[in-house]
Amino acid sequence: MLMSIATVSISGSLDAKLHAIHEARFQGVEIFENDLLSFGGSAPEVGALIRDLGLTCTCFQPFRDFEGMPEPQRRKVFERAERKFDLMQEIGASLLLVCSNVSPASSNDRGRIVDDFRELGERAGARGLRIGFEALAWGRHVADHREAWSIVREVGHPAIGLILDSFHSLARNIPIDSLREIDPAKVFLVQLADAPMLQMDLLQWSRHFRNMPGQGDFPLVDYVSALVAQGCDCPLSLEIFNDRFRAASASTVAVDGRRSLSFLWDEVMRGPARAHADTDRIRRGGRSELPPRVVCRGIEFLEFAANESEAVDLGRMFTALGFSQVGKHRSKDVTRWRQQDINFVINSEPESFARSYDNVHGASVCAVGLRVEGLQEAMLRAKGLQIGKFSDPLGLAELQMPAVQGVGGSLVYFMESGHEREVWNDEFIPLSEQGPCHDAGLLSVDHIAQTMQYEEMLSWLLYYLSLFEVTKTAQFEIADPLGLVYSQAIQSADGALRITLNGSASAQTLSSRFLQGYLGAGVQYIALATRDIVATARRLRDLGLPMLPIPHNYYDDLEARFGLDAGTVGELSELNILYDREANGEYFQLYSRAFAKRFFFEIVERRNYNGYGTANAAIRLAAQSRYRLEAPARVA
User: Fold this and answer.
1) Pairing of strands 483-491, 471-472
2) Do the Cβ atoms of 450 and 501 come closer than 8 Å?
3) Model-level pTM?
4) Which are the contacts of 68, defined by CB distance < 8 A and separation ≥ 6?
Protein backbone atom coordinates (compact mmCIF):
# COMPACT_ATOMS: atom_id res chain seq x y z
CA MET A 1 0.00 0.00 0.00
CA LEU A 2 1.51 3.33 -1.06
CA MET A 3 1.69 5.63 1.95
CA SER A 4 1.47 9.38 1.46
CA ILE A 5 1.09 12.60 3.42
CA ALA A 6 -0.23 16.06 2.51
CA THR A 7 2.25 18.91 2.82
CA VAL A 8 -0.31 20.86 4.86
CA SER A 9 0.21 18.31 7.65
CA ILE A 10 3.67 19.58 8.64
CA SER A 11 5.45 22.89 9.14
CA GLY A 12 8.12 24.67 7.14
CA SER A 13 8.83 25.65 3.56
CA LEU A 14 7.80 23.31 0.75
CA ASP A 15 11.32 22.06 0.08
CA ALA A 16 11.91 21.41 3.81
CA LYS A 17 8.60 19.56 3.99
CA LEU A 18 9.49 17.37 1.02
CA HIS A 19 12.86 16.44 2.52
CA ALA A 20 11.21 15.59 5.86
CA ILE A 21 8.60 13.46 4.10
CA HIS A 22 11.29 11.60 2.18
CA GLU A 23 13.41 11.02 5.30
CA ALA A 24 10.36 9.66 7.14
CA ARG A 25 10.08 6.98 4.41
CA PHE A 26 6.82 8.03 2.82
CA GLN A 27 6.41 7.00 -0.81
CA GLY A 28 3.95 9.72 -1.79
CA VAL A 29 3.08 13.35 -1.15
CA GLU A 30 0.00 15.50 -1.68
CA ILE A 31 0.97 19.02 -2.71
CA PHE A 32 -1.21 21.61 -1.02
CA GLU A 33 -1.77 24.62 -3.25
CA ASN A 34 -0.74 27.24 -0.67
CA ASP A 35 2.60 25.50 -0.17
CA LEU A 36 3.29 25.72 -3.90
CA LEU A 37 2.14 29.35 -4.18
CA SER A 38 4.36 30.48 -1.30
CA PHE A 39 7.45 28.59 -2.50
CA GLY A 40 10.30 30.63 -3.93
CA GLY A 41 11.06 28.21 -6.77
CA SER A 42 9.10 27.32 -9.88
CA ALA A 43 6.57 24.51 -10.30
CA PRO A 44 8.97 22.52 -12.56
CA GLU A 45 11.64 22.81 -9.82
CA VAL A 46 9.18 21.38 -7.31
CA GLY A 47 8.40 18.53 -9.68
CA ALA A 48 12.12 17.82 -10.12
CA LEU A 49 12.65 17.78 -6.35
CA ILE A 50 9.74 15.36 -5.85
CA ARG A 51 11.22 13.01 -8.43
CA ASP A 52 14.80 13.37 -7.09
CA LEU A 53 13.57 12.35 -3.64
CA GLY A 54 11.91 9.27 -5.10
CA LEU A 55 8.42 10.43 -4.17
CA THR A 56 5.17 10.10 -6.09
CA CYS A 57 2.89 13.14 -6.21
CA THR A 58 -0.34 11.46 -5.18
CA CYS A 59 -2.53 14.55 -5.46
CA PHE A 60 -2.68 18.30 -6.02
CA GLN A 61 -5.26 19.98 -3.82
CA PRO A 62 -7.64 21.59 -3.15
CA PHE A 63 -9.80 22.83 -6.03
CA ARG A 64 -12.73 24.61 -4.40
CA ASP A 65 -16.23 25.77 -5.34
CA PHE A 66 -16.48 23.95 -8.66
CA GLU A 67 -19.79 22.18 -9.23
CA GLY A 68 -23.15 23.82 -9.77
CA MET A 69 -21.95 27.39 -10.37
CA PRO A 70 -24.06 29.77 -12.52
CA GLU A 71 -22.66 31.74 -15.42
CA PRO A 72 -20.38 33.64 -15.68
CA GLN A 73 -18.77 31.94 -12.62
CA ARG A 74 -19.02 28.54 -14.34
CA ARG A 75 -16.91 29.66 -17.27
CA LYS A 76 -14.31 31.14 -14.91
CA VAL A 77 -14.22 27.93 -12.86
CA PHE A 78 -13.25 25.92 -15.93
CA GLU A 79 -10.62 28.50 -16.88
CA ARG A 80 -9.18 28.16 -13.40
CA ALA A 81 -9.23 24.37 -13.71
CA GLU A 82 -7.17 24.53 -16.92
CA ARG A 83 -4.52 26.63 -15.15
CA LYS A 84 -4.41 24.08 -12.33
CA PHE A 85 -3.95 21.33 -14.92
CA ASP A 86 -0.91 23.22 -16.22
CA LEU A 87 0.55 23.35 -12.73
CA MET A 88 -0.16 19.68 -12.13
CA GLN A 89 1.70 18.64 -15.25
CA GLU A 90 4.66 20.78 -14.22
CA ILE A 91 4.94 19.16 -10.78
CA GLY A 92 4.06 15.65 -11.95
CA ALA A 93 0.64 15.32 -10.29
CA SER A 94 -1.98 13.24 -12.08
CA LEU A 95 -4.86 13.62 -9.60
CA LEU A 96 -6.73 16.82 -8.63
CA LEU A 97 -8.84 16.93 -5.47
CA VAL A 98 -12.13 18.73 -6.01
CA CYS A 99 -13.92 19.31 -2.71
CA SER A 100 -17.68 19.82 -2.59
CA ASN A 101 -18.90 23.35 -3.12
CA VAL A 102 -19.55 25.67 -0.16
CA SER A 103 -20.40 28.80 -2.17
CA PRO A 104 -23.84 30.37 -1.57
CA ALA A 105 -24.00 30.95 -5.33
CA SER A 106 -23.89 27.25 -6.12
CA SER A 107 -26.92 25.31 -7.28
CA ASN A 108 -28.14 21.96 -6.04
CA ASP A 109 -29.39 21.08 -9.54
CA ARG A 110 -28.31 17.46 -9.92
CA GLY A 111 -28.23 17.60 -13.70
CA ARG A 112 -26.03 20.70 -13.65
CA ILE A 113 -23.61 19.08 -11.18
CA VAL A 114 -23.34 15.88 -13.23
CA ASP A 115 -22.78 17.85 -16.43
CA ASP A 116 -20.06 19.93 -14.75
CA PHE A 117 -18.14 16.85 -13.67
CA ARG A 118 -18.60 15.17 -17.02
CA GLU A 119 -17.08 18.18 -18.80
CA LEU A 120 -14.27 18.42 -16.24
CA GLY A 121 -13.58 14.72 -16.80
CA GLU A 122 -13.31 15.28 -20.54
CA ARG A 123 -10.85 18.14 -20.07
CA ALA A 124 -8.77 16.24 -17.51
CA GLY A 125 -8.80 12.99 -19.47
CA ALA A 126 -7.51 14.79 -22.57
CA ARG A 127 -4.39 15.64 -20.56
CA GLY A 128 -4.01 12.23 -18.95
CA LEU A 129 -5.22 13.57 -15.59
CA ARG A 130 -7.89 12.45 -13.14
CA ILE A 131 -10.35 14.19 -10.83
CA GLY A 132 -11.19 13.01 -7.31
CA PHE A 133 -14.43 14.36 -5.80
CA GLU A 134 -14.41 14.74 -2.00
CA ALA A 135 -17.49 15.43 0.12
CA LEU A 136 -16.69 18.07 2.74
CA ALA A 137 -18.54 17.51 6.00
CA TRP A 138 -19.75 21.13 5.75
CA GLY A 139 -20.40 21.11 1.98
CA ARG A 140 -23.36 23.26 0.93
CA HIS A 141 -25.11 20.58 -1.11
CA VAL A 142 -22.83 17.51 -0.84
CA ALA A 143 -21.65 16.67 2.70
CA ASP A 144 -21.76 12.87 2.63
CA HIS A 145 -19.51 10.43 0.75
CA ARG A 146 -22.64 8.49 -0.24
CA GLU A 147 -23.95 11.51 -2.13
CA ALA A 148 -20.53 12.14 -3.69
CA TRP A 149 -20.38 8.52 -4.83
CA SER A 150 -23.86 8.77 -6.31
CA ILE A 151 -22.72 11.74 -8.40
CA VAL A 152 -19.49 10.05 -9.52
CA ARG A 153 -21.44 6.94 -10.49
CA GLU A 154 -23.92 8.95 -12.50
CA VAL A 155 -21.15 10.90 -14.24
CA GLY A 156 -19.68 7.60 -15.38
CA HIS A 157 -16.44 9.05 -16.73
CA PRO A 158 -13.15 7.14 -16.39
CA ALA A 159 -11.30 10.30 -15.28
CA ILE A 160 -13.81 11.07 -12.50
CA GLY A 161 -13.56 9.18 -9.21
CA LEU A 162 -13.91 9.56 -5.48
CA ILE A 163 -11.55 10.78 -2.78
CA LEU A 164 -12.58 9.55 0.64
CA ASP A 165 -11.57 11.45 3.79
CA SER A 166 -12.07 9.61 7.06
CA PHE A 167 -12.62 12.82 9.01
CA HIS A 168 -15.49 14.02 6.84
CA SER A 169 -17.22 10.65 7.14
CA LEU A 170 -16.55 9.74 10.76
CA ALA A 171 -17.11 13.21 12.21
CA ARG A 172 -20.67 13.02 10.84
CA ASN A 173 -21.14 9.42 12.01
CA ILE A 174 -21.75 8.12 8.50
CA PRO A 175 -21.93 4.32 8.79
CA ILE A 176 -18.72 2.57 7.79
CA ASP A 177 -20.83 -0.17 6.18
CA SER A 178 -21.81 2.36 3.51
CA LEU A 179 -18.28 2.06 2.06
CA ARG A 180 -19.27 -1.38 0.77
CA GLU A 181 -21.60 0.23 -1.76
CA ILE A 182 -18.70 2.01 -3.50
CA ASP A 183 -16.85 0.51 -6.47
CA PRO A 184 -13.26 0.26 -5.15
CA ALA A 185 -11.87 0.94 -8.64
CA LYS A 186 -13.42 4.41 -8.47
CA VAL A 187 -11.73 5.31 -5.18
CA PHE A 188 -8.65 7.24 -6.34
CA LEU A 189 -7.29 8.24 -2.90
CA VAL A 190 -8.10 7.70 0.78
CA GLN A 191 -7.17 10.53 3.13
CA LEU A 192 -6.87 9.63 6.80
CA ALA A 193 -7.07 11.65 9.98
CA ASP A 194 -7.99 10.77 13.53
CA ALA A 195 -9.51 13.21 16.02
CA PRO A 196 -10.75 13.40 19.59
CA MET A 197 -14.50 13.25 20.00
CA LEU A 198 -15.63 16.86 20.41
CA GLN A 199 -18.95 18.65 20.29
CA MET A 200 -18.14 21.66 18.14
CA ASP A 201 -18.47 23.23 14.72
CA LEU A 202 -17.30 20.74 12.08
CA LEU A 203 -15.10 23.22 10.24
CA GLN A 204 -13.29 24.32 13.41
CA TRP A 205 -12.96 20.71 14.56
CA SER A 206 -11.42 19.77 11.23
CA ARG A 207 -9.09 22.76 10.94
CA HIS A 208 -7.58 22.59 14.43
CA PHE A 209 -8.00 19.19 16.05
CA ARG A 210 -7.19 16.47 13.56
CA ASN A 211 -4.38 14.15 14.56
CA MET A 212 -2.55 11.01 13.50
CA PRO A 213 -4.25 7.60 13.35
CA GLY A 214 -4.20 6.14 16.85
CA GLN A 215 -4.01 9.48 18.63
CA GLY A 216 -7.75 10.16 18.57
CA ASP A 217 -11.04 8.36 19.01
CA PHE A 218 -12.13 7.52 15.45
CA PRO A 219 -12.47 3.82 14.41
CA LEU A 220 -9.88 4.09 11.64
CA VAL A 221 -8.93 0.40 11.69
CA ASP A 222 -12.57 -0.47 10.93
CA TYR A 223 -12.73 2.24 8.28
CA VAL A 224 -9.64 1.10 6.38
CA SER A 225 -10.51 -2.58 6.89
CA ALA A 226 -13.86 -2.03 5.18
CA LEU A 227 -12.11 -0.51 2.16
CA VAL A 228 -9.49 -3.26 1.96
CA ALA A 229 -12.21 -5.90 2.20
CA GLN A 230 -13.84 -4.28 -0.83
CA GLY A 231 -10.58 -4.57 -2.77
CA CYS A 232 -9.56 -0.91 -2.52
CA ASP A 233 -5.88 -0.57 -3.44
CA CYS A 234 -5.36 3.19 -3.79
CA PRO A 235 -2.81 5.21 -1.78
CA LEU A 236 -3.44 5.98 1.87
CA SER A 237 -2.58 9.58 2.68
CA LEU A 238 -2.52 11.65 5.85
CA GLU A 239 -4.24 15.04 5.77
CA ILE A 240 -3.79 16.57 9.22
CA PHE A 241 -4.76 20.05 10.38
CA ASN A 242 -3.51 20.63 13.92
CA ASP A 243 -2.11 23.75 15.57
CA ARG A 244 0.23 21.69 17.76
CA PHE A 245 1.74 19.94 14.75
CA ARG A 246 2.24 23.21 12.88
CA ALA A 247 4.35 24.44 15.80
CA ALA A 248 6.47 21.26 15.92
CA SER A 249 9.47 20.21 13.87
CA ALA A 250 8.64 18.93 10.39
CA SER A 251 10.84 15.86 10.80
CA THR A 252 9.22 14.84 14.11
CA VAL A 253 5.68 15.17 12.75
CA ALA A 254 6.60 13.38 9.51
CA VAL A 255 8.08 10.43 11.40
CA ASP A 256 5.03 10.30 13.66
CA GLY A 257 2.84 10.32 10.57
CA ARG A 258 4.71 7.44 8.96
CA ARG A 259 4.67 5.53 12.24
CA SER A 260 0.92 6.03 12.55
CA LEU A 261 0.28 4.66 9.07
CA SER A 262 2.58 1.69 9.69
CA PHE A 263 0.71 0.97 12.91
CA LEU A 264 -2.69 1.39 11.27
CA TRP A 265 -1.85 -0.83 8.31
CA ASP A 266 -0.41 -3.49 10.61
CA GLU A 267 -3.60 -3.50 12.68
CA VAL A 268 -5.71 -3.76 9.51
CA MET A 269 -3.63 -6.65 8.22
CA ARG A 270 -4.02 -8.51 11.52
CA GLY A 271 -7.80 -8.26 11.36
CA PRO A 272 -10.49 -9.78 9.14
CA ALA A 273 -9.47 -7.58 6.20
CA ARG A 274 -6.33 -9.64 5.66
CA ALA A 275 -8.40 -12.54 4.36
CA HIS A 276 -9.70 -10.27 1.59
CA ALA A 277 -6.33 -8.77 0.64
CA ASP A 278 -4.39 -10.53 -2.10
CA THR A 279 -0.78 -11.55 -1.50
CA ASP A 280 0.67 -8.94 -3.87
CA ARG A 281 -1.11 -6.12 -2.05
CA ILE A 282 0.13 -7.36 1.33
CA ARG A 283 3.67 -7.49 -0.04
CA ARG A 284 3.41 -3.96 -1.43
CA GLY A 285 2.16 -2.69 1.92
CA GLY A 286 5.52 -3.63 3.47
CA ARG A 287 4.56 -2.78 7.03
CA SER A 288 2.00 -5.56 7.34
CA GLU A 289 4.82 -7.93 8.20
CA LEU A 290 5.84 -6.10 11.37
CA PRO A 291 6.10 -8.45 14.35
CA PRO A 292 3.11 -8.16 16.71
CA ARG A 293 2.95 -5.39 19.25
CA VAL A 294 5.23 -6.09 22.20
CA VAL A 295 3.66 -7.87 25.16
CA CYS A 296 5.11 -6.47 28.39
CA ARG A 297 4.97 -8.59 31.55
CA GLY A 298 6.03 -5.80 33.88
CA ILE A 299 8.70 -3.29 34.82
CA GLU A 300 11.78 -5.27 35.83
CA PHE A 301 13.93 -2.33 36.90
CA LEU A 302 14.30 1.43 36.99
CA GLU A 303 17.78 2.80 36.45
CA PHE A 304 18.75 6.04 38.21
CA ALA A 305 21.63 8.14 36.93
CA ALA A 306 23.58 9.72 39.80
CA ASN A 307 27.07 10.98 40.44
CA GLU A 308 28.98 9.75 43.48
CA SER A 309 27.53 12.23 45.98
CA GLU A 310 23.98 11.99 44.58
CA ALA A 311 24.19 8.19 44.82
CA VAL A 312 24.69 8.44 48.59
CA ASP A 313 21.59 10.62 49.03
CA LEU A 314 19.61 8.39 46.67
CA GLY A 315 20.66 5.33 48.67
CA ARG A 316 19.35 6.96 51.84
CA MET A 317 15.98 7.55 50.19
CA PHE A 318 15.82 3.97 48.92
CA THR A 319 16.58 2.73 52.43
CA ALA A 320 13.81 4.91 53.83
CA LEU A 321 11.48 3.32 51.24
CA GLY A 322 12.37 -0.13 52.59
CA PHE A 323 14.90 -1.18 49.95
CA SER A 324 18.14 -3.02 50.58
CA GLN A 325 21.30 -2.98 48.49
CA VAL A 326 21.61 -6.55 47.21
CA GLY A 327 24.15 -6.40 44.41
CA LYS A 328 27.10 -4.60 42.83
CA HIS A 329 27.98 -4.70 39.14
CA ARG A 330 30.97 -6.87 38.33
CA SER A 331 32.88 -4.18 36.45
CA LYS A 332 31.06 -0.84 36.80
CA ASP A 333 30.05 1.58 39.53
CA VAL A 334 26.46 0.33 39.49
CA THR A 335 24.46 -0.98 42.45
CA ARG A 336 21.23 -2.93 42.68
CA TRP A 337 18.56 -2.22 45.28
CA ARG A 338 15.58 -4.52 45.78
CA GLN A 339 12.32 -4.92 47.64
CA GLN A 340 10.13 -7.88 46.68
CA ASP A 341 9.72 -7.65 42.86
CA ILE A 342 11.01 -4.08 42.60
CA ASN A 343 14.55 -3.45 41.37
CA PHE A 344 16.24 -0.04 41.42
CA VAL A 345 19.66 0.41 39.87
CA ILE A 346 21.94 3.36 40.69
CA ASN A 347 24.43 3.96 37.88
CA SER A 348 27.40 6.17 38.85
CA GLU A 349 29.80 4.87 36.20
CA PRO A 350 31.89 7.88 34.99
CA GLU A 351 32.09 6.88 31.31
CA SER A 352 28.49 5.90 30.58
CA PHE A 353 25.19 7.01 29.15
CA ALA A 354 23.95 7.42 32.72
CA ARG A 355 26.68 9.92 33.59
CA SER A 356 25.90 11.96 30.47
CA TYR A 357 22.23 11.90 31.44
CA ASP A 358 23.05 12.96 34.99
CA ASN A 359 25.19 15.85 33.73
CA VAL A 360 22.12 17.26 31.98
CA HIS A 361 19.28 16.36 34.33
CA GLY A 362 20.80 15.58 37.72
CA ALA A 363 20.00 12.41 39.66
CA SER A 364 16.93 10.93 37.97
CA VAL A 365 15.47 7.92 36.16
CA CYS A 366 17.50 7.50 32.98
CA ALA A 367 16.15 4.11 31.87
CA VAL A 368 13.29 1.66 32.33
CA GLY A 369 13.81 -2.08 31.99
CA LEU A 370 10.79 -4.06 30.75
CA ARG A 371 10.10 -7.78 30.82
CA VAL A 372 8.85 -8.64 27.34
CA GLU A 373 7.84 -11.68 25.34
CA GLY A 374 9.92 -12.11 22.18
CA LEU A 375 12.91 -9.86 22.69
CA GLN A 376 14.20 -10.01 19.12
CA GLU A 377 10.73 -9.43 17.69
CA ALA A 378 10.37 -6.42 19.96
CA MET A 379 13.53 -4.88 18.53
CA LEU A 380 12.41 -5.63 14.98
CA ARG A 381 9.07 -3.93 15.57
CA ALA A 382 10.81 -0.89 17.03
CA LYS A 383 13.06 -0.72 13.98
CA GLY A 384 10.07 -0.97 11.63
CA LEU A 385 8.41 1.91 13.49
CA GLN A 386 11.57 4.04 13.19
CA ILE A 387 12.23 3.96 16.93
CA GLY A 388 15.96 4.42 17.41
CA LYS A 389 18.13 1.63 18.84
CA PHE A 390 20.71 2.34 21.55
CA SER A 391 23.90 0.46 22.33
CA ASP A 392 26.51 1.22 25.00
CA PRO A 393 30.16 0.12 24.86
CA LEU A 394 30.45 -3.26 26.57
CA GLY A 395 32.78 -4.08 29.41
CA LEU A 396 34.66 -7.36 29.75
CA ALA A 397 32.25 -10.34 29.63
CA GLU A 398 29.29 -7.94 29.84
CA LEU A 399 25.94 -8.74 28.26
CA GLN A 400 24.41 -6.53 25.58
CA MET A 401 20.90 -5.67 26.73
CA PRO A 402 18.77 -4.45 23.81
CA ALA A 403 17.49 -0.90 24.25
CA VAL A 404 15.57 1.73 22.33
CA GLN A 405 15.31 5.47 22.76
CA GLY A 406 12.53 6.69 25.03
CA VAL A 407 10.96 9.86 26.42
CA GLY A 408 13.30 12.81 26.83
CA GLY A 409 16.38 10.95 25.64
CA SER A 410 15.98 8.20 28.23
CA LEU A 411 16.22 4.50 27.38
CA VAL A 412 13.86 1.53 27.37
CA TYR A 413 15.63 -1.80 27.91
CA PHE A 414 14.09 -5.13 26.93
CA MET A 415 14.62 -8.28 29.00
CA GLU A 416 13.23 -11.64 27.93
CA SER A 417 10.41 -12.52 30.31
CA GLY A 418 11.38 -15.54 32.43
CA HIS A 419 15.12 -14.96 32.03
CA GLU A 420 15.55 -11.97 34.32
CA ARG A 421 17.40 -13.88 37.02
CA GLU A 422 20.06 -14.94 34.53
CA VAL A 423 20.83 -11.31 33.75
CA TRP A 424 21.08 -10.31 37.40
CA ASN A 425 23.29 -13.31 38.23
CA ASP A 426 25.58 -12.69 35.26
CA GLU A 427 25.93 -8.94 35.72
CA PHE A 428 25.90 -8.44 39.52
CA ILE A 429 27.83 -9.78 42.49
CA PRO A 430 25.29 -10.50 45.23
CA LEU A 431 25.75 -8.70 48.55
CA SER A 432 24.60 -10.15 51.83
CA GLU A 433 21.96 -8.01 53.48
CA GLN A 434 23.27 -6.56 56.73
CA GLY A 435 21.47 -4.99 59.66
CA PRO A 436 17.71 -4.93 60.25
CA CYS A 437 15.23 -5.78 57.54
CA HIS A 438 13.99 -2.58 55.88
CA ASP A 439 11.11 -4.13 53.92
CA ALA A 440 8.09 -1.81 53.94
CA GLY A 441 5.67 -4.12 52.15
CA LEU A 442 6.20 -2.68 48.67
CA LEU A 443 5.61 -5.37 46.05
CA SER A 444 5.98 -4.06 42.49
CA VAL A 445 6.05 -0.99 40.31
CA ASP A 446 2.40 -0.06 39.80
CA HIS A 447 3.02 2.70 37.25
CA ILE A 448 5.37 5.47 36.30
CA ALA A 449 4.44 9.05 35.41
CA GLN A 450 6.32 10.77 32.61
CA THR A 451 6.02 14.52 32.23
CA MET A 452 6.64 16.26 28.92
CA GLN A 453 5.79 19.35 26.95
CA TYR A 454 2.07 19.48 26.22
CA GLU A 455 2.91 19.55 22.49
CA GLU A 456 4.80 16.24 22.86
CA MET A 457 2.01 14.23 24.43
CA LEU A 458 0.40 12.97 21.23
CA SER A 459 3.78 11.92 19.85
CA TRP A 460 4.67 9.82 22.88
CA LEU A 461 1.15 8.43 23.08
CA LEU A 462 1.62 7.12 19.53
CA TYR A 463 5.06 5.75 20.47
CA TYR A 464 3.62 3.53 23.21
CA LEU A 465 0.45 2.53 21.37
CA SER A 466 2.29 1.46 18.23
CA LEU A 467 5.10 -0.41 20.00
CA PHE A 468 3.34 -2.15 22.91
CA GLU A 469 0.17 -4.18 23.36
CA VAL A 470 -1.59 -1.45 25.34
CA THR A 471 -4.69 0.70 25.23
CA LYS A 472 -5.15 4.35 26.16
CA THR A 473 -7.46 5.89 28.71
CA ALA A 474 -9.41 9.10 28.24
CA GLN A 475 -7.47 12.31 28.69
CA PHE A 476 -8.14 14.19 31.93
CA GLU A 477 -7.77 17.85 32.83
CA ILE A 478 -6.34 18.28 36.32
CA ALA A 479 -6.49 21.58 38.20
CA ASP A 480 -3.06 22.73 39.36
CA PRO A 481 -3.14 25.91 41.51
CA LEU A 482 -1.39 27.70 38.63
CA GLY A 483 -3.02 26.19 35.56
CA LEU A 484 -4.30 23.00 33.97
CA VAL A 485 -2.38 19.75 33.64
CA TYR A 486 -3.42 17.21 31.00
CA SER A 487 -2.98 13.54 31.80
CA GLN A 488 -3.53 10.37 29.80
CA ALA A 489 -2.49 6.80 30.56
CA ILE A 490 -1.50 3.80 28.50
CA GLN A 491 -1.89 0.38 30.08
CA SER A 492 -1.80 -3.30 29.25
CA ALA A 493 -4.90 -5.44 29.79
CA ASP A 494 -3.41 -7.14 32.86
CA GLY A 495 -2.00 -3.92 34.33
CA ALA A 496 1.58 -5.16 34.05
CA LEU A 497 2.54 -1.98 32.20
CA ARG A 498 1.00 1.33 33.22
CA ILE A 499 2.43 4.71 32.23
CA THR A 500 0.79 8.09 32.61
CA LEU A 501 1.72 10.94 30.25
CA ASN A 502 1.39 14.44 31.66
CA GLY A 503 1.82 17.90 30.19
CA SER A 504 0.67 21.47 30.66
CA ALA A 505 0.38 24.53 28.45
CA SER A 506 0.77 26.78 31.50
CA ALA A 507 4.31 27.81 32.42
CA GLN A 508 3.78 27.79 36.20
CA THR A 509 2.17 24.40 36.88
CA LEU A 510 4.15 21.75 38.73
CA SER A 511 4.52 19.82 35.47
CA SER A 512 6.00 22.81 33.67
CA ARG A 513 8.31 23.67 36.56
CA PHE A 514 9.54 20.08 36.48
CA LEU A 515 10.44 20.47 32.81
CA GLN A 516 12.23 23.75 33.48
CA GLY A 517 14.26 22.36 36.38
CA TYR A 518 14.84 18.97 34.78
CA LEU A 519 15.76 20.49 31.40
CA GLY A 520 13.45 18.22 29.47
CA ALA A 521 10.91 15.44 29.67
CA GLY A 522 11.32 12.51 32.03
CA VAL A 523 9.96 10.41 34.89
CA GLN A 524 8.38 12.70 37.48
CA TYR A 525 7.21 10.02 39.87
CA ILE A 526 7.19 6.27 40.44
CA ALA A 527 4.14 4.55 41.95
CA LEU A 528 4.87 1.45 44.05
CA ALA A 529 2.19 -1.07 44.98
CA THR A 530 1.41 -2.51 48.41
CA ARG A 531 -1.27 -4.84 49.76
CA ASP A 532 -1.69 -2.91 53.03
CA ILE A 533 -1.11 0.81 52.67
CA VAL A 534 -1.73 1.55 56.35
CA ALA A 535 0.96 -0.89 57.47
CA THR A 536 3.30 0.37 54.75
CA ALA A 537 2.69 4.01 55.71
CA ARG A 538 3.52 3.30 59.34
CA ARG A 539 6.66 1.43 58.34
CA LEU A 540 7.79 4.25 56.02
CA ARG A 541 7.22 6.75 58.81
CA ASP A 542 9.40 4.66 61.13
CA LEU A 543 12.09 4.48 58.43
CA GLY A 544 12.12 8.27 58.19
CA LEU A 545 10.73 8.82 54.69
CA PRO A 546 9.63 12.48 54.33
CA MET A 547 5.94 12.39 53.41
CA LEU A 548 3.71 14.93 51.70
CA PRO A 549 1.25 16.40 54.26
CA ILE A 550 -2.40 16.53 53.20
CA PRO A 551 -4.69 19.23 54.73
CA HIS A 552 -7.39 18.25 57.22
CA ASN A 553 -10.07 19.87 55.04
CA TYR A 554 -9.61 17.04 52.55
CA TYR A 555 -10.46 14.43 55.18
CA ASP A 556 -13.51 16.33 56.44
CA ASP A 557 -14.87 16.19 52.88
CA LEU A 558 -13.81 12.56 52.45
CA GLU A 559 -15.96 11.42 55.36
CA ALA A 560 -19.02 13.17 53.97
CA ARG A 561 -18.47 12.22 50.33
CA PHE A 562 -17.91 8.49 50.73
CA GLY A 563 -19.58 7.77 54.06
CA LEU A 564 -16.40 6.36 55.58
CA ASP A 565 -16.45 5.79 59.32
CA ALA A 566 -14.66 8.31 61.52
CA GLY A 567 -12.03 5.79 62.63
CA THR A 568 -10.97 4.99 59.08
CA VAL A 569 -10.86 8.66 58.10
CA GLY A 570 -8.81 9.45 61.20
CA GLU A 571 -6.30 6.77 60.30
CA LEU A 572 -6.04 8.01 56.71
CA SER A 573 -5.56 11.58 57.97
CA GLU A 574 -2.88 10.56 60.46
CA LEU A 575 -0.88 8.89 57.69
CA ASN A 576 -1.60 11.40 54.85
CA ILE A 577 -3.31 8.73 52.75
CA LEU A 578 -5.68 9.84 49.99
CA TYR A 579 -8.72 7.79 48.99
CA ASP A 580 -10.86 7.31 45.90
CA ARG A 581 -13.66 4.95 44.90
CA GLU A 582 -15.10 3.85 41.54
CA ALA A 583 -17.93 1.32 41.20
CA ASN A 584 -16.82 -1.49 43.54
CA GLY A 585 -13.16 -0.50 43.55
CA GLU A 586 -11.08 1.46 46.03
CA TYR A 587 -7.76 3.26 45.66
CA PHE A 588 -5.43 4.40 48.43
CA GLN A 589 -2.39 6.59 47.75
CA LEU A 590 0.25 8.56 49.58
CA TYR A 591 3.24 10.54 48.40
CA SER A 592 6.81 11.11 49.44
CA ARG A 593 8.42 14.51 49.32
CA ALA A 594 10.46 15.05 46.17
CA PHE A 595 14.10 14.03 45.89
CA ALA A 596 16.07 17.21 45.11
CA LYS A 597 12.77 18.72 43.85
CA ARG A 598 13.13 16.42 40.87
CA PHE A 599 11.07 13.26 41.30
CA PHE A 600 9.02 11.62 44.02
CA PHE A 601 7.31 8.35 44.91
CA GLU A 602 3.67 7.38 45.21
CA ILE A 603 2.56 4.39 47.29
CA VAL A 604 -0.70 2.80 46.16
CA GLU A 605 -3.07 0.06 47.17
CA ARG A 606 -5.60 -1.05 44.58
CA ARG A 607 -8.75 -2.90 45.50
CA ASN A 608 -10.45 -3.80 42.23
CA TYR A 609 -9.66 -0.29 40.95
CA ASN A 610 -8.30 0.41 37.49
CA GLY A 611 -7.73 4.17 37.56
CA TYR A 612 -5.04 6.47 38.91
CA GLY A 613 -6.76 8.47 41.62
CA THR A 614 -7.36 11.38 39.26
CA ALA A 615 -9.92 12.88 41.65
CA ASN A 616 -7.11 13.43 44.17
CA ALA A 617 -4.59 14.89 41.73
CA ALA A 618 -5.57 18.49 42.42
CA ILE A 619 -5.15 17.91 46.16
CA ARG A 620 -1.69 16.46 45.63
CA LEU A 621 -0.63 19.27 43.29
CA ALA A 622 -1.79 21.92 45.77
CA ALA A 623 0.08 20.20 48.59
CA GLN A 624 3.26 20.03 46.51
CA SER A 625 2.93 23.68 45.48
CA ARG A 626 3.16 24.73 49.12
CA TYR A 627 6.73 23.45 49.18
CA ARG A 628 7.99 24.99 45.93
CA LEU A 629 10.16 27.61 47.69
CA GLU A 630 11.47 25.33 50.43
CA ALA A 631 14.79 23.49 50.36
CA PRO A 632 14.65 19.98 48.90
CA ALA A 633 13.52 17.27 51.32
CA ARG A 634 16.28 15.15 52.82
CA VAL A 635 16.21 11.74 54.42
CA ALA A 636 17.74 11.49 57.85
Assistant:
1) antiparallel
2) yes
3) 0.94
4) 101, 106, 107, 108, 109, 112, 113, 116, 141
